[in-house]
Amino acid sequence: MGYVANTNADKRAMLESIGVNSIADLFTDVPEEHRFPELPLPPPLSELDVSREIEALSERNMRVSGMSFLGGGAWNHFIPRAVPYLASRSEFATAYTPYQPEASQGTLQALFEYQSMLCELLGMEVVNASHYDGATSVAEAALMAVNAARGKRKKVLVSGGLHPQYRSVMQTYLQAMQVKLMALSAGIASAEAFHSAGGSPDYPFGQAELKQLAAAADEETACVIVQNPDFFGSIRDLAGLADELHAKGVLLVVHTDPIYLGLFRPPGADGADIVTGEGQPLGIDLSFGGPYLGIFGCTKKLVRRMPGRLTGQTTDTEGTRGFVLTLNTREQHIRREKATSNICTNQGLMALRASIYLALMGQAGLREVASLCYHKSHYAAAEIDKLTGFAVPDDIRFFREFVVQVPIPAAEIVKGLSQQGIVPGLDLGRYFSGRRNELLVAVTEMNTKDDIDALVSALENVA
Amino acid sequence: MIKPIPALLYEQSESGRRAAVMPDCDVPESTFPEELLRADLKLPELSEPGVVRYFTQLSQLNFSIDTNFYPLGSCTMKYNPKVNEAMASLPGFLGHHPLQEEMLSQGSLELMYRLQEQLAAVSGFHSVSLQPAAGAQGEFAGISMIRAYHESRGEAHRRRVLIPDSAHGTNPATVTMAGYEPVELPSDANGNVDLQALKEACDDNLAALMITNPNTLGLFEEHIEEVTGTIHEFGGLVYGDGANMNALLGTLRPGDVGIDVMHFNLHKTFSTPHGGGGPGSGPVAAAEILAPFLPGPVVEREAEGGPYSFVTPAQSIGSIKLFYGNFGMNIRAFTYILMHGASGMRELGENAVLNANYLKSRIEKLLPVKYKRNCMHEFVAGGKIEGAEEITTRDIAKRLLDYGMHAPTVYFPLIVKEALMIEPTESENKRTLDAFVEALETIISEAREHPGLLHGAPHEMPLKRLDEVKAVKDLVLCMHP
C-alpha cells in the first residue's frame, strides 16, 4: 500500500534499534488469542478500482440541479468556485486545531475573520469558532442557558416553529439534565406530546405565539427559544420580546438563518442573548446532510459560559498582532468535568468556507442573494396559490420557504414529480403525522423563473 | 524569507469593490416588510483576486501534514489520500439533499450501510451508527446509551463512571454532560489502570468505565480483560474511547476484549482531513446488548438485494445531530477502508506501532521516557534536559517549529511532568523520523549552550512567541468594521 512509507531495509534497521526481531514482537501486550484477528474485509483494491466502484455508487443517487425546491434545514445555494478552490488547499485542510499558534496563523486569522463577519451579520458581540451544525448549536444554547442560571431554572420554552429534528437533538442533549423541554402550541406540555399530537397544529404561529411564550416564561424558565425564519419559512417581528423576558430573568435564544440576515434585522438588534444558526448556506455543499456549520453567538456578558473554541487577538514578543485560541479555561482539556461542554474538534474547515464565502459576497452580494430568495419565493407562492386546490395561507410573511396546502397527499406529489426530474419540496407528513397534505417549498437564487413556472405547471397537472 | 502576514479583510476593504455578482432578478419583485429590514450591513468589500490572494497567503502561514512532519500525539496526523477528496466531491454525492426520498438516495444509503459494516468488522462490534459529528459527540452518544440501558433495566441509581487519570479531558466532560458522576482512577507504575484501585472503586452504583486503549501514554492496557471483567462483574459497562484506534487496526478488535461501546475518530484512524479543527466524524459502535440504544437514524436493508432505508433503533437515545452525520467524512473513510482491505488494515496498525517504537528507541536516549515498555502508536517523553533545567517543554516545542516540524502534543497527559506526546503515524518514513531526532539533538545542545535561543523561540516563523495571557486579559474576539 502506497501510504506506508518504510522500505523493508528501513524496517530491519528500525527493529534493530528497538531491539526486537519482528514487528509482531511489539504486540506482546495484546492478549494472544485476540492478537492479529482475521478481519472480515475484502482484499485491498487499487485507486482505479475504488474510484470506479464509488463513482458507480454516486450515480445511484438521483441528480437534480435547478429543479429542486427542497429545504427543511439545508438549502441549495450558489457556491462561488473560489470557495472550494481555496478551502481545499492542503495547508488549511491537513492542519489540525491550532495548538501551536505560531505555526497556525493561517487557520487562526481565518477563524478571527469568521468571528468578525458573523458578529456583524448576527449583531452580536461574540461568535465562536463553530459548532457541529444548527441543531447541536441550539441544543448547546439550551444547556448554556440552564447552566448560566446555576441550576435554579430548569425549564426551556420552545416555539412551535423550531425544526422538528432540532427539537429531537435538544431532547437527546437535555435528557440527562432533568431539564423540562416545553412546547407551547395548543397547550401541549412536552416535546413528546407535541410530536404524538401530529405537531404544530397552531401553525402559522404568528405574533400571538411570541406573546404566549413571554407570558408562560416564569421563575423556573432558563430561556425561550425562537427560530426566525422558522422551520416553515415564516418570519416574525421579535422587537420587545427580549425586554419582556429579561424582566423575568429569562434569556432569549434566537435561531436564525445567515442568508435572511443579508436583508433583515439581526437578532442582536432585538436583544437576543444567544444566537444560533445553520451555516450551510454560506458556501457549504448539501453533501447529504454534512459536514455543515453550527453558528453560535452570545453577549459579552455570557462569554465565559459559552461552549466551543474562540480565537482571540494578541501580540507576539515584538508587539506584532497575531491570533491564538483563548479563554481555554472554559474547555474540557483544561476544566475536564467542569467544562462548559465536551466539544473539542468542531467544524473549522466549514467556518473557513463561510469566511471565504462572505468575503467574496461582501455586503452587496449577500443582499442580492437574500433579495433573490425573497422575490423568487414570493413569485412561486403567488403562482402556486392561483392553482385550483392549492393554497398558500395569506397574511404570512416568509423568507425563501413557505407552506402549500395541496389537494392530495404531498408524498404522492413528491413521488410523481420526482419521476419528471422535479423535486417539488418537502412532504410535511414526514415530520408531522397531522400534516400529510402540506408541502414545504423552498426557492433560492438557484431556481430560475423557468424552473418555477415548470414546477407550477407540473403541480397543476397532478391535481 | 519570513512570510508576510496580510492585513485583515476589513482593513483591506474599500467601498464599492465587488467580487461575486448575482444574476438580475427574473421575476416580478415583491415588497419587503420595511419594519423588519436591517439598518445596515458592513461586510468587507474586496475583488475576487484580492480574496484569493488573501486566503492563499493565509494558508501559507500554516504548518500542515502535506508540508511538515506533524507528530501531534493522540491526533493521528496521518497522510490524507487525495482520492478521498475526489470521491467526496463526486457531483452525485456533493449536491445531494439530505431530505431527498430514500429511493432516490440509494447510492448514499448503500455507502453508509457498507461503512457501518466495515467499521463493525474492523472493531468486532455488532452495530454502528454514523451520526455523531466528532469524537466527543460519539462519547456523549455512548455514555447516553449506557444510561438508557441501565434505566431500561430499572437501575437508574447507577451513576458513577470510572475514568483513568490518563484520559482525554473530553471523557470527564462527557460524563458530566450525560448527568453522571466522574470518578478518577489512578494509573499503576507500569502505566496500566491500577487494578486494586479499580476494584475498590466498584460498587452497586457503578454505571461504567471509560477506557482509552492504548491509553494516552501510548501503552496497551496489559490487563484489559481483567479490567473489563471486573466492571461487568459489578454490573457496569465499558466505554472504549477510540481516539487511539490506529494502533489496533488489524492487530486487535476492541469488541473481542469486553468493550461494550466505542467511538471512532474517522479524522484520525481513517484518514479524513483534520481541517484545522474539524469537521471530524465520530461513529459509535455497540455490542449486541447496546445496539438497540444507538443514536439514529441508521441504515438498514430488509433483504439481500433489496433497497436500503433509514431506521431508528428500537430504544434509540434519539438524534444527536441534524440528519445522518458528517456524510462527506464517511465517503472519505469508506474509500480508505476499501483501498486497504483486511491486509492493508494490519499493515497500517503495524507500521504505526513500528514508527512509534523506533522513535522512542532513539528519543529515550535524549529525554526521559518514564515507562520502559514497548509502546503502541505513540509515547510520552518529558521535556527535561539535563544541564539545562530552566528549559521547559514549551521552549522545546517552539524551537522545533524553527526546524520546520510541528511540535508534539505538549503538557498532556497531565500525569507526566512537562509531557511531550509523540505520535509519528505510519505515513512517515525512517528518514523523516531521523531528521526529527537530529532536530531534537540540536535543540538539546542549544539548550545547554545558548538557552536564550530556546526561551526566545520561535525565530523563523512569521511571528515570534505569542502572548496567550494578554489574549485573555484584553479580550478581543472580533474586529468591528
Short précis:
With 463 residues, chain A is an alpha/beta fold.
How are the SSEs placed, and which strands pair?
The complex is a heterodimer of chains A (463) and B (481).
Chain A: H1 8-18, H2 47-58, H3 82-87, H4 90-93, H5 105-122, E1 126-127, H6 134-148, E2 155-158, H7 164-174, E3 180-183, H8 191-196, H9 206-216, E4 221-227, H10 241-246, E5 251-256, E6 274-278, E7 294-298, E8 310-315, E9 321-326, H11 332-335, H12 348-385, E10 401-405, H13 410-418, E11 426-427, E12 438-442, H14 449-462
Parallel strand pairs in A: 2-3, 2-4, 4-5, 5-6
Antiparallel strand pairs in A: 1-7, 6-7, 8-9, 10-12, 11-12
Helix pairs in contact in A: 5-12, 6-7, 12-14
Chain B: H1 9-12, H2 48-59, H3 82-88, H4 91-94, H5 106-123, E1 127-129, H6 135-152, E2 160-164, H7 170-177, E3 181-185, H8 195-201, E4 206-212, H9 224-233, E5 237-241, E6 261-263, E7 284-286, E8 298-301, E9 308-311, H10 327-363, E10 379-382, H11 393-402, E11 409-410, E12 419-422, H12 430-449, H13 451-455, H14 468-473
Parallel strand pairs in B: 2-3, 2-4, 4-5, 5-6
Antiparallel strand pairs in B: 1-7, 6-7, 8-9, 10-12, 11-12
List the keywords.
heterodimer, A: 463 residues, alpha/beta, Aspartate Aminotransferase, domain 2, 3 domains, seven-stranded mixed β-sheet, 12 strands, 12% strand, globular, B: 481 residues, Aspartate Aminotransferase, domain 1, three-stranded antiparallel β-sheet, 35% helix, 10% strand
